[in-house]
Structures are given as structure tokens and as C-alpha cells.
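User: Can you recover a sequence for this backbone? Please restate the input before giving your answer.

Assistant: Of course. Working from this structure:
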């Protein structure tokens, strides 16, 4: 079994670190589909945690349909496990990523890459200088194909460790397909994170304050943090105030 990440590196809750270690074993097939997992007592001894922590980790993996439990114990989900339920429908009252409900429903182009963030952002994302992370780029297009809004988001080490829906991209899966991260904040809630959003809106200095057409440019800088104060996501949104509106709705 893979060892849980050191608390000094990620400082995430114990049960999430145990779940991440087990998840990696399941995904890498170190635990074969259909095979039985070690007992709660064995797992607690291996991971140096109490059994309640192990139970919480296993419950998270059950919610992800990676394991199943019956009278005999807990087993890795078989290949023919039922598909995941459909994602909840997006509504105006559900917070959406990265630009709010209007941007979520507009014509967009999105991509995911794996690259180092700008050097000043690395320590805020708990990354070493030059260390790559998941980067999301999102462009909202107008009726004639002109870009109305651009956004780029960098994800932190804790975000990739704690949010299962993001960790799959960390393993290089689906990165070439246009990603749908509109339910990112819902995923954070599912992972047990209590998140804080801090946004600042400003105008670029000098000539950059207007577009080629003379419209005012606005920039939004967002930092989403967890209950420990660790940044999960840092996003920069740039748009023309004349041709697009930045709409963001959130309720705790």
C-alpha cells in the first residue's frame, strides 16, 4: 500500500490522506478489482491512524464507487461496477466555475494542461519553483466567435490531493478532451472542504486598460482557500466591460 502523504507537505485531514493512498493503490491496480482490502485494524496500523479515520477514508472511497462493503469485508470495485450517477443539473443557484452561470451556459473553449505556474504563485499553491500543476484555460466566445472573456486557473497541491474529480486529470487522463469543471465548487463541498472565495476586481494600468475597440478592460483575481487557509485554486479572469459581464453567484 502507498504511504499517505506527509502532513508537513499537504497538511490535509488524515482521512483524506489515507483515502488518497488507497485510491492510488486501486487505480494503479496494486489492489486488483474484486479483491479484498486489508481489515480496518490492519489499515490503521499501517497508516498510523485510528480506526475511525480508516472508516471515514473507506466511506469516501465507497462514495466514489471505488470500493464496496458487505458482510465479508471491503473489496475493490469490480470492472463491471455501475456507472457513476449523472452530475447534478446546473442552475442559477448552484455556484459554477470559473465565470458564473452566464459564462457556464455560453459558447466556450476550454483546455487542461500540466505546467508550472508563474513563479510568484508557486509557494501560494504549495508547489516548489518549477513544479508543474494542473492548469485550466477557459474562453467565452461571442456570437461571431470573438473572445469575450478569458480565464486561467492554477490548482494547488492540496486541491489535487483532496478532490477526486481533479486527481484523475493529474494522472493524465482526459486532458486532451474539452474538460467540464463547472461543478468544481460542488466537488469541493463533496470532499468535505469549507471554502472561502476572495475576489478583487480592477482595471489594468496604462494603455492595457482598454481593448483595441476602446472598451474598458476589467480583470478579476480570485483565490479559493480551504478551512485551513490553503489556496485550492487561483484564477485570473480578463474581459471587456462593454461586451461581457462577469457574473458570479455563491452561497455557503
Amino acid at each position: 500500500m502507498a504511504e499517505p502523504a506527509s502532513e508537513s507537505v499537504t497538511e490535509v485531514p488524515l482521512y483524506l490522506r489515507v483515502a488518497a493512498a488507497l485510491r492510488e493503490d486501486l487505480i494503479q491496480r496494486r489492489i486488483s478489482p474484486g479483491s479484498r482490502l486489508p481489515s480496518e485494524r490492519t489499515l490503521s496500523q499501517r497508516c498510523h491512524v485510528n480506526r475511525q479515520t480508516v472508516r471515514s477514508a473507506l466511506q469516501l472511497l465507497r462514495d466514489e464507487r471505488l470500493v464496496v462493503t458487505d458482510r465479508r469485508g471491503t473489496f475493490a470495485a469490480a470492472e463491471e461496477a455501475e456507472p457513476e450517477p449523472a452530475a447534478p443539473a446546473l442552475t442559477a443557484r448552484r455556484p459554477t466555475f470559473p465565470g458564473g452561470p452566464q459564462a457556464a451556459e455560453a459558447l466556450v473553449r476550454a483546455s487542461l494542461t500540466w505546467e508550472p505556474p508563474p513563479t510568484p504563485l508557486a509557494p501560494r499553491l504549495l508547489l516548489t519553483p518549477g513544479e508543474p500543476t494542473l492548469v485550466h484555460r477557459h474562453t467565452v466566445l461571442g456570437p461571431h466567435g470573438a473572445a469575450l472573456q478569458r480565464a486561467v486557473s492554477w490548482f494547488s497541491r492540496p486541491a489535487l490531493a483532496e478532490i477526486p474529480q481533479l486527481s484523475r486529470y493529474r494522472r493524465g487522463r482526459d486532458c486532451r478532451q474539452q474538460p467540464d469543471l463547472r461543478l468544481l465548487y460542488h466537488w469541493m463541498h463533496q470532499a468535505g472542504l469549507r471554502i472561502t472565495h476572495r475576489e478583487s476586481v480592477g482595471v489594468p494600468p496604462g494603455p492595457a486598460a482598454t481593448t483595441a475597440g476602446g472598451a474598458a478592460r476589467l480583470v478579476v483575481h480570485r483565490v479559493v482557500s480551504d478551512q485551513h487557509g490553503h489556496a485550492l485554486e487561483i484564477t485570473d479572469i480578463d474581459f471587456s466591460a462593454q461586451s461581457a459581464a462577469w457574473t458570479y453567484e455563491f452561497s455557503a
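That completes the design. The domain at 100-240 is CATH 3.40.1410.10 (Chorismate lyase).
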